[in-house]
Amino acid sequence: MARVPVLPQNTELTYLAEGAANIVYRISIRPLTPEPTLLEQYGPGTPPPTDIEPEDEVEYLNEQPLFDSKLLRLRKNLPTTFPVAIAQEKWEQLVAPLFSPDQIVEQSLVDLRPGRFIASLNQKLRNNETGANSSSRPTNRLGIYLADDDYGLLVTDMTNFDSVNGEEVHEFKLKWLLQSPSAPKDAVRCRQCARSAQENVKRRANGKPYKQYLCPLDAVSDDPRGIAQAASLMGTSEGNRRRIKRWLENSTLLKRLRQLQAELDPIGVLTHDPPNEKSCVAMTLRDCTLFLRLPRNEAGDALIEARLGDLDVKSPDKAPYWKQTELELINDGFYQGRDGLPLDCALSPDQEGRFRRLNLGLGRGFGA
């Protein structure tokens, strides 16, 4: 096993974002300031203290470039997360070989033990939740803290580097890029659009407006209108929508992801009993994140950087949740469209009507 670098004790970690299983921190390594020492304490021939560097301090200084353009990802204390060293081993063996290095968010182990970071970060999370200021954490993430793990992961920083000059970074959970093998034969929605309809029913019950979700099948569609529809929901400006459309038309990344989803799980979550290694990787690929970094328009389309992240292999302990979710979508009629919501899916039998409705801005409210 390659030597694992140590996160310097003089590192400052700033909360950036979190998902269901991990919290991501920005890394800032503060300059080392040695304690002033009287030269009179040293005998003749002893070099000044500024010329003496402890061995571990030299090690830290040599490692600091490793943290450039990196974020720190730490796992939460949940029964469905693997210890980081095990998760990284699975990633290296089962996921990384599926893609070229420039297609994925690279990750590597970092040793947290010398700095005792976990206890300090958990205390900050608790203080933030109970303090006078509102927590920066999403409400549904409160009360869950970091696992007391020996390691974290250094991951490629895919945040916005140059927003002042017009750079944009977007991230998308495209989820299932083809229909679920367990879906009913009479389905008029793909698996992800069925899940989106389920979420919109909850929004309706809570008095919230209908939310237009991306149909992931549009992102890998052979129909130019589908590609255009996906790009319209992925970009925030007209220029970047055009660039994303061209990227979707020309890139092979998402089609490769779709191919792997199909190959690794051709039978569906209802028949994973128990889940095997391949099915767990398939579910990982159905929940990964697509990061798109778009420099300002003048830089040209060729500079769009696309990487897949959040690729830690799923635990088979999540199988009951996967099955329960699929059964709800089937039994409650979300696949078949029995909820009365618009069929904003590439599998809708009325594609002409769908695109006409979307182009007119209809179908974006309940009862449309």
Automatic annotation (TrEMBL):
InterPro entries: Ins_P5_2-kin (IPR009286). One of its GO terms (cellular component) is nucleus. The keyword Kinase applies. One of its GO terms (molecular function) is inositol-1,3,4,5,6-pentakisphosphate 2-kinase activity. It catalyses: 1D-myo-inositol 1,3,4,5,6-pentakisphosphate + ATP = 1D-myo-inositol hexakisphosphate + ADP + H(+). The keyword Transferase applies. Its EC number is 2.7.1.158. Keywords: ATP-binding, Kinase, Nucleotide-binding, Transferase. The EXKPK motif is conserved in inositol-pentakisphosphate 2-kinases of both family 1 and 2. Phosphorylates Ins(1,3,4,5,6)P5 at position 2 to form Ins(1,2,3,4,5,6)P6 (InsP6 or phytate). Has kinase activity and phosphorylates inositol-1,3,4,5,6-pentakisphosphate (Ins(1,3,4,5,6)P5) to produce 1,2,3,4,5,6-hexakisphosphate (InsP6), also known as phytate. This is Inositol-pentakisphosphate 2-kinase. It comes from Lachnellula arida.
